[in-house]
Write a structure and sequence with these properties.
The structure holds 2 protein chains of 2 kinds. Chain A is an alpha+beta fold. Chain A has helices spanning about 45-50, 55-60, 70-85, 90-120, 120-145, 165-190, 190-195, 205-210, 215-220, 225-230, 250-275, 325-330, 335, 345-350, 355-360, and strands at about 5-10, 20-25, 30-35, 150-155, 155, 290-300, 305-310, 315-325. Chain B is of the alpha/beta class. Chain B is elongated. The chains are: A alpha+beta, B alpha/beta.
């Protein structure tokens, strides 16, 4: 059989959890080309936010996506704070990092557990999800919710940590260190995982740079673009850490970046708890948002998240636009897919940690 | 870090002065206490956007995103570039809804330009793959900029079928 076929995957497909449409051109078992169409669940959030005031938009932006939900209001709020000229108290800066890093660790563990699921290693998947469950408990105990933390507000944060909560947080983080170490060993050296991830979905460094790819997808190809370092915000400049890079350029490298970033996230939370300054957690009250424009960006679990806010002096934004990390990573699939087998499509797809609800704000 | 970024911004602005034919206005820069600088620039002529993209490409820059918005006399389009950790927002004005595509220069503009074409009906000149990205072929491009009340949208979407079924079940007649 040497004919070329077009296989449609999507928009609604059993292998996809959210709707997107791939037109995959295959030659025998091998993928030759892929075309991507999106827009099936577009929600028009960019229009919606113009009809809500600055405070209400904190709530809406948090609903853009579940896994990186904390980063959306966080980045939006930083853009608004730039327009209003607000500088948040030091304690709030550290508390913002803690909320963000807990979310990052949980998000990365979710992605690698999906990888285990897709390669058919289900006991590894359940083990990873079980470990992640500890972080879910942490979120529920400290912020009162398993996904949307509602941690940030204009001028600071909405939560504070007392001594008991700090002790609890340290205890829970210590609890997952050993399991994550064991899991990392399995993801790195197990025969099944290696066979399905090594050399699969290659994204050479030059292509990653050319396409402007972001997050662990880029860092797995050795592109150093961690915004926490390149464009420091809140307390990240005071913390001791380095960007995590891998040079495998394949699915395995991207998974390893995520696993190593889970350790890094735990370390960053511990650093924050150690150096947590005293003082208020917010500037108090809502500032008047004057006419102006502001940009802000953060390193969300999936990569750089960018917000642009333009205000005209009223209590609603004149224009708001956000660019989610996945948005730039889609085109990378066109480089990763060709030459791989049909069975690898879902594994490669998962390796960019795709978020369709983000893409289709 | 602070000095590096400041120096880089002055190099970039000086180069723009050389290559941007109709000139630009440096609206303002936002500095924060961590050494970041966000630069806001306004172009006098929309045709200069390719020259801007070329300058930023030479310095290893990329397109972060593009924000189009409606103003009384047409559209403002704000291009957000990243060069070495600096965010540069370049705004231009278009009245005729056409704009030169910068995707041939910076591939990272691809999707965001196509989204702008779908949602705002802005025509791209010279885009290598100007196909639909978000909207189905059956919908007119730029449909999202039209104001449609919820009741209008509902009237368009709902039919009498359900009401007729209820009527029939009750033994009534449908006209």
């Amino acid at each position: 059989m040497s004919e070329t076929y077009k296989v449609p995957v999507g928009p609604i497909h059993i292998a996809l959890e959210e709707p997107v449409y791939f037109k995959v051109k295959v030659h025998g078992e091998t993928v030759e080309d892929v075309d991507i169409l999106s827009g099936f669940v577009h929600r028009g959030m960019e229009a919606l936010v113009l009809r809500r005031n600055f405070l209400q938009n904190m709530i809406i932006t948090e609903r853009t996506c579940s896994l990186c939900s904390n980063n959306h209001p966080f980045t939006y709020i930083m853009a608004v704070e730039k327009i209003a000229g607000v500088r948040i108290p030091p304690r709030a800066e550290y508390l913002r990092v803690i909320a963000d890093e807990i979310k990052r660790a949980a998000s990365h563990l979710f992605n690698v557990s999906m990888l285990a699921h897709l390669v058919g290693f289900h006991s590894l998947m359940t083990q990873t999800m079980e470990t992640r469950e500890v972080l879910q408990d942490v979120k529920e105990c400290i912020w009162g919710n398993r996904m949307d933390l509602g941690a940030n507000t204009i001028g600071g944060v909405k939560y504070d940590l007392d001594q008991e909560q700090i002790r609890y947080l340290i205890k829970q983080l210590n609890l997952i260190k050993k399991p994550i170490k064991e899991l990392t060993e399995i993801y790195s050296y197990n025969g099944i995982v290696r066979a399905r991830t090594e050399g699969v979905g290659m994204l050479p460094k030059e292509d990653a740079i050319r396409l402007g790819v972001v997050g662990p997808t880029a860092r797995g190809s050795g592109v150093d673009n961690d915004q926490r370092i390149a464009y420091p915000y809140v307390a990240y400049d005071k913390l001791n850490f380095e960007a995590i890079l891998e040079d495998g350029c394949d699915v395995r490298a991207r998974a390893l970046v995520r696993l190593r970033e889970v350790f890094q996230a735990i370390d960053l939370v511990e650093q924050c708890l150690k150096d947590l300054p005293d003082g208020p957690v917010t500037t108090g009250g809502l500032p008047r948002i004057p006419e102006g424009e502001g940009v802000a960006r953060t390193e969300a679990p999936r990569g750089e998240l960018f917000f642009y806010v333009k205000s005209n002096g009223s209590n609603k934004p004149e224009r708001m636009k956000w660019r989610v990390p996945t948005y730039l990573n889609w085109e990378a699939l066109k480089v990763m897919m060709p030459g791989n087998k049909i069975a690898d499509i879902s594994v490669i797809f998962n390796s960019i940690d795709p978020c369709i609800s983000c893409t289709e704000r | 870090m602070t000095m590096d970024k400041k120096e880089k911004v002055s190099v970039l602005l000086a180069e723009l002065k050389m290559y941007v034919t109709s000139g630009y206005k440096h609206k303002f820069s936002h500095f924060d206490h961590l050494g970041n600088e966000d630069v806001y620039i306004e172009l006098h002529d929309k045709c200069d956007i390719s020259a801007v993209a070329n300058v930023f490409k030479q310095h290893g820059g990329r397109v972060v995103t593009i924000t189009p918005y409606v103003v009384d006399s047409g559209y403002q389009i704000a291009y957000h570039f990243d060069v070495a950790g600096i965010v540069l927002t370049v705004t231009l004005h278009t009245e005729d809804r056409t704009i030169d595509s910068i995707t041939p220069i910076l591939k990272s503009a691809d999707w965001t330009e196509r989204e702008m074409q779908d949602l705002f009906g802005i025509k791209l000149v010279g885009h290598p793959n100007p196909d639909r990205l978000i909207l189905d072929e059956s919908m007119a491009q730029g449909i999202f900029k039209e104001y449609m009340t919820l009741s209008d949208a509902m009237t368009g979407a709902a039919t009498n079928t359900l009401w007729e079924k209820i009527n029939e079940a009750k033994g009534g007649h449908n006209e």
